[in-house]
Known about the structure:
Four Helix Bundle (Hemerythrin (Met), subunit A); flat; 2 domains; 15 helices
Amino acid sequence: MSFVSQHDISDANARISVADPKDFLALLKPRVMSLVIFTALAGLLIAPGQMHPFIAFVSLLAIAVGAGASGALNMWYDADIDAKMSRTRTRPIPAGRITAQEALGFGLTLSAFSVVTLGLVANWLAAALLAFTIFFYAVVYTMWLKRSTPQNIVIGGAAGALPPMVGYAAAANSISLSSVVLFAIIFIWTPPHFWALALVKSADYARAGVPMMPNVKGPSHTRLEILLYTILLAPLGVVPSFMGFASPAYGAVAVLGGAGMLYFAVEVYRRREGEVADKAAKKLFGFSILYLFALFAVIVVENSIAPLARLFGQG
């Protein structure tokens, strides 16, 4: 039985699509793609040696396309779920603007293009890591974990955490402890970030039959898990400054950001009823995005200064 036949796709998806370019762009999950580019750039910049600017640009473009391909494959397979959830029912496939078959072809084509391009332009270690990232997100997470276990976000978060390692490998043709640390930060950040949203959207997930942590273990257990993961995340975020690939300024941002994460996680743990609970969860969700952006922004800026100085003859 084919994957497509496992889904209750509407009749609109059997017709020729009426999509415009912005619908195909939506398939790429551009907000997720932007985070992938940013974290991959951090991994690329902390790698030793110099990478030609054009090769670096094409490598990041290939990584971004690979992330977009993962998003398209995710939307293809999850069309039935997306149609049942208020925040996703307007996506191109459930809304009938793009057919499931078109999304599948689009995702597979971009997957092959991104992996081959990265291999030819940078190296095949980076290409292999990118291929594994796409496979892990589209197959392991989307097709298996998401529908089968409340640990879906925990294990599946590895896909979203791999871009710094892919970026590092593209520049250095190797994997280092520093790139693994960046992977670990995103990996541990993912559960409290997404579970905060899941607390607010638990009815949506229940309607779609997705076994998110609040629906399976309950809101109280989810709040405890959020707090425990945040307690792990706060000190982990400071580690790059102790390893020497981030400055004391980064360390200060990480300490302040980690304290903020802990504050909002404690608020989520304490506030358990009605609108107050939802407000606390939304605040943690929003701050978690700012926290991760700030950490990687400092790394990107710090590691861009010297190359830019050399480029303009000031180093």
